[in-house]
């Protein structure tokens, strides 16, 4: 919308200009007036006009003086001056403020319209030029950011650009990158699970990138994706990274915690030391990658500083020699006796981490060896590892596919505890105790969902073995016992209360009323409603 301001001290001429020309046809939607130069200056500040038609000679402030002030604030405004004097000096002054035209009164409508069209055309051309310029600047900035990112990525990951300091400085200057300041690097390693495909991984990476860019947007930080499921956050400041840098790192850690819960992924963050030169970024990358690799020992979900890695390594290396074969034998002996093995297992894994350059592979091999020897000893006493802890082959596959030592430790601890618990019960002949424990659970929790797997986990037995001992002792399966129990409770409620049938079903553990009615009729040869009617 083009806005026009008419500045004229003659009332008749001012009103004539405002009312006797069809400004809408010329594309002008707002027309305001001022009665002298001072009033015109105030009106211009208020409405920011695109075009001003002004008399030259006015009391208080001339049109030329007014234009000189307005041009300081709004240089894009177009001026059309009118005067009853053909004064060369006034014409020169008008040209100095880049007037579009200088018209001699009385104004001719055709001449004024022609000048207005010229002014609006200039405005349109300038607007289009400005849009094109802004687009070029935007494209340049986008391309510059891309080139900056690629340059830094190569510098960080390969260190290639850092070999020639002079060339590095020239490239950095060309890309408007500062060589001065302090740098710190954070590497975020992600694990989306074995079931996610390439496209899903890409989408999830974009979610994480967006979260990190949002956190870093108002800070001196640049977020970049590199090969694999890894993201780099480069921190740069002109002063040593103190509280502000610590806060940025803490914000990144908290942001990753939140986004990992949202998209169900695992993460690890490694942070380098502080460096003062751009050519040290490759070293910073090595440090942060090493810190992130500690996930193997610590598990995912941690933030590790490179400086802290050396402290922990120095402490660990003080440990004395450790006989792994003897430790495995002792663990198996504890399991066969039915005793607690968790502390010894942790000690074994810890010692293996200390003495091995590749602890994950060594821990996997060690745990497989542990279960292989355990399986042999169980077979010697007529027992079977499969019956107590699930199929042995699947156990080994889970160990091999584990990506961190804590994952292996959790799996091994759970399996060994299950076997030890079984051996303890066998030694004490407490199968009856287990059956009583199962019966207690069923009688107290029949209102809730109950599965064979959930029961077996609570008594540290495999589902298959629990099913066998329960059937041997009770002459009925667990599912049949639970069904009879629930229907017995349902009959009591139908007989003694006025709850609706579906409410009764829910109260005895059947969330689906149709399924409840089907089960009830199969066992009782009548529907729940028919059973209730017998007692009315």
UniProtKB/TrEMBL annotation:
An annotated GO BP: phosphorelay signal transduction system
Record-level Gene Ontology MF annotations: DNA-binding transcription factor activity; sequence-specific DNA binding
Domain called HTH araC/xylS-type: residue spans: 436-534
Span of domain Response regulatory: 3-120
Modified-residue entries (4-aspartylphosphate), positions: 55
Protein keywords: DNA-binding, Phosphoprotein, Transcription, Transcription regulation
CDD domains, sorted: REC_YesN-like
Pfam family, one: HTH_18
Protein name listed in UniProt: YesN/AraC family two-component response regulator
């Amino acid at each position: 919308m083009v806005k026009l301001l008419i500045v004229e001290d003659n009332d008749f001429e001012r009103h004539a200009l405002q009312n006797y020309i069809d400004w809408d046809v010329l594309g002008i939607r707002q027309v305001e007036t001022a009665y002298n130069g001072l009033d015109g200056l105030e009106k211009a500040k208020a409405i920011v006009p695109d075009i001003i038609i002004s008399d030259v000679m006015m009391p208080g402030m001339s049109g030329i003086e007014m234009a000189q002030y307005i041009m300081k604030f709004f240089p894009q405004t177009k001026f059309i001056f009118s005067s009853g004097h053909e004064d060369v000096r006034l014409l020169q002054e008008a040209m100095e403020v880049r007037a579009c035209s200088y018209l001699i009164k009385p104004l001719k409508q055709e001449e004024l319209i022609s000048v207005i069209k010229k002014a609006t055309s200039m405005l349109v051309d300038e607007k289009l030029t400005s849009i094109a310029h802004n687009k070029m600047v935007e494209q340049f900035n986008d391309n510059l950011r891309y080139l900056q990112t690629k340059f830094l990525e190569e510098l960080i990951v390969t260190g290639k650009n850092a070999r020639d300091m002079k060339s590095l400085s020239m490239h950095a200057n060309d890309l408007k990158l500062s060589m001065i300041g302090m740098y710190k690097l954070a590497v975020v390693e992600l694990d989306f699970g074995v079931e996610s495909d390439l496209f899903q991984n890409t989408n999830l990476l974009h979610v994480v990138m967006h979260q990190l860019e949002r956190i870093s947007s108002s800070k001196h930080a640049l977020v970049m994706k590199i090969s694999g499921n890894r993201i780099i956050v480069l921190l740069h400041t002109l002063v040593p990274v103190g509280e502000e840098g610590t806060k940025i790192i803490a914000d990144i850690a908290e942001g990753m915690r939140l986004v990992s819960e949202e998209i169900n992924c695992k993460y690890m963050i490694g942070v380098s030391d502080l460096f003062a030169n751009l050519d040290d970024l490759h070293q910073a990358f090595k440090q942060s990658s090493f810190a992130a690799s500690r996930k193997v020992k610590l598990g995912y979900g941690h933030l590790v500083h490179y400086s802290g890695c050396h402290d922990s390594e120095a402490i660990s290396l003080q440990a004395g020699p450790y006989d792994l074969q003897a430790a495995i034998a002792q663990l198996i002996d504890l399991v066969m006796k039915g005793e607690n093995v968790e502390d010894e297992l942790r000690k074994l894994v810890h010692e293996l981490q200390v003495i091995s350059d590749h602890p994950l592979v060594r821990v996997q091999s060690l745990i497989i060896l542990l279960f292989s020897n355990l399986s042999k000893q169980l077979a010697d006493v007529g027992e079977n590892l499969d019956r107590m802890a699930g199929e042995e082959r699947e156990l080994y596959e889970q160990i091999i596919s584990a990506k961190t030592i804590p994952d292996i430790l959790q799996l091994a601890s759970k399996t060994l505890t299950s076997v030890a618990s079984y051996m303890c019960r066998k030694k004490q002949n407490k199968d009856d105790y287990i059956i009583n424990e199962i019966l207690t659970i069923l009688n107290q929790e029949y209102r809730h969902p109950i599965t064979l797997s959930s029961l077996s986990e609570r008594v540290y037995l495999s589902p298959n073995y629990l099913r066998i001992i329960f059937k041997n002792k009770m002459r009925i399966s667990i599912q049949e016992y639970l069904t009879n129990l629930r229907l017995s409770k349902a009959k009591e409620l139908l007989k003694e209360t006025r709850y609706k049938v579906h409410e009764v079903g829910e109260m005895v553990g059947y969330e689906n009323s149709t399924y409840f009615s089907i089960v009830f009729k199969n066992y009782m040869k009548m529907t729940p409603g028919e059973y209730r009617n017998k007692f009315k």
